[in-house]
Amino acid sequence: MIKNLIKCALLICVIFLGYIYRKNIYNFVLETFVINKNPVKEKANVYYKDYNYDYVSETENFRPKNKQDLLNIFYTILNNGWENFEFYCDVNYTNCYDDLTNITKESDVLSNINNMVNPYNSYEFLSFDVSALGKVSVNIDKLYTDDEIKYIDDEINKIIDEIITNDMTTEEKIKAFHDYVINLIQYDTSLNIKTNNSNKANGALINKKAVCSGYSDLMAIFLDKLGIKNYKIINDEHVWNLIFINNKWLHIDLTWDDPTTSDGSEILIHDFFLIDTNELEKISNKLGNNQHEFNKNIYTEAT
Question: What are 192-217's pLDDT values in tens digits?
Answer without folding.
Answer: 888 899 999 999 999 999 999 999 99
